[in-house]
Amino acid sequence: MGEVxxxxxxxxxxxxxxxxxxxVLPYKLPPLGPNDVRVRMKAxxxxxxxxxxxxxMRMTHYVVKEPMVIGHECxxxxxxxxxxxxxxxxxxxxAVEPGMTCGRxxxxxxGRYNLCDDTKSLGLPPIHGSLANxxxxxxxxxxxxxDNVNLEEGAMCEPLSVGxxxxxxxxxxxxxxxxxxxxxxxxLVTMFTARAFGSPRIVIADVDEQRLLIAKSLGADEFVxxxxxxxxxxxxxxxxxxxxxxDIDVTFDCAGFSKTMSTALxxxxxxxxxxxxxxxxxxxxxxxxxxxxxxxxxxIGAFRYKExxxxxxxxxRSGKIDVKPLITHRFGFSQEExxxxxEVSARGGKAIKVMFNL
Length: 358
Fold this sequence. Notes:
Layout: E1 3-4, E2 12-18, E3 21-28, E4 36-45, H1 48-56, E5 58-59, E6 62-63, E7 68-69, E8 73-81, E9 93-96, E10 99-100, H2 106-109, E11 120-121, E12 134-138, E13 142-144, H3 151-155, H4 157-169, E14 177-181, H5 185-196, E15 201-206, H6 209-217, E16 222-225, H7 233-244, E17 250-253, H8 258-267, E18 273-276, H9 288-295, E19 298-301, H10 309-317, E20 327-331, H11 335-347, E21 353-357
Parallel strand pairs: 14-15, 14-17, 15-16, 17-18, 18-19, 20-21
Antiparallel strand pairs: 1-3, 2-3, 2-7, 4-8, 4-12, 4-21, 5-6, 8-9, 9-13, 10-11
Helix pairs in contact: 4-5, 4-10, 7-8
């Protein structure tokens, strides 16, 4: 999938070399296959997983064992076509879906390619990512952008896809009142998508009041500030129910901790649904019997996404979703700017989406 180059006019990329060690170095691209395109990267966002790799060199069971180019939220301009590519042209502006699946397993054949065990995704160890001047990628995973959708919005299709997939999994519709636990980027794109799918009322909860104020300004009907302490759970659930003013039909846990899942299980109505989107803790202690067995609250997962880019692009093109307010910080692609961008993203606070303009 490419290697560190030796200087000259070669492609440059952000290489993760070790914990808190990110260097802009030459990157030799792999050869262009007949069904590939070469894309000049123009917008690349920083995801929480990118920060996690930088801080720990691992995410769940994915471990960075050797130098790796980081990044996977991206959009750019087609510069070269493989010999068999007919659907795109040089100069097209495209949003890039990062995951490359086998196409042969039972999940791929059933249309659930997000569950493919042989997924090779940009920036997912050991596959090199997209924070580079250029990228070689399969043409069928590059989606042409309409004239009124800019390249930053194209890069935002990746996080937005998480919200779209989650709302599809939970069957959000105009009769669904939604609670979102977690007001980070994924919580916010899930909020945007739930509204676009027709949800009449959305309440969001988080430990960070600044994030909650941002969520309110971007369309949440109400918000509730919560604490990390499980001792506050019962009181907080009452506040959440009061803020909703009616039954909570679906809760999205966009954090993935014992406390957030316990909040979801206690707040969601009998017969309702919880969609676990966040992956904070691998193991949790939660009240399953009282909620799942006694009240038939369903728990579903949302992993990656499938067939979401066309809808994301249409939601942005039509104005049903405006992702631009989520982009709070922008940086260039020098060594100094790359280091500063990741520091800003890691601090959180007012930083929602940190974007590189290459």
